[in-house]
Amino acid sequence: MKETGVASSRAVAAKRRANPQVKPGQPVKAVTSTKPAKAASGRKLPSAAVRRACFLEVLRRTANVSRAAREAGLATSTLYAQRARSATFAADWDAAVAEALDALEEELVHRVRHGVEKPVFYAGQQVGSMRQYSDALAMFILKARRPEVYGRVVAERALAAEAGAGDEPSQDEARAEVLRRLARLGDG
Question: Structurally, how many domains does the chain consist of?
Answer without folding.
Answer: 1
